[in-house]
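Incident review: delayed structure delivery

Summary: a single-chain prediction request sat in the queue longer than the usual turnaround. Root cause was a stuck worker, restarted by the on-call engineer. No data loss occurred. The affected request and its eventual output are reproduced below so the record is complete for anyone auditing the incident later.

Affected input:
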Amino acid sequence: MNFHFPIARVIPTGCKTFGGLAKVVLARNYAAFASQGGSCKDGILETLQQLTAMQLAMDVEKISPETRIPQDLNIY
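Output delivered after worker restart:
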């Protein structure tokens, strides 16, 4: 995918878990993701997990849809 959207710098209000964050990202960008085909929700969640794991130097397996933001990631 080749998107040119500005990247948000804060977690949207009301997002308490990675699953919630994936839903918000999908809702705000559905048309762009849907035009690329594939499973939008799973793709977004996987991408968010990988980006977060890289930034926090942690195993991606430790980030699930139920992972709480920021508590379970130790980012305050």
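Verification: Residues 18-34 form the longest helix (17 residues).
Action items: add queue-age alerting; document worker restart procedure.
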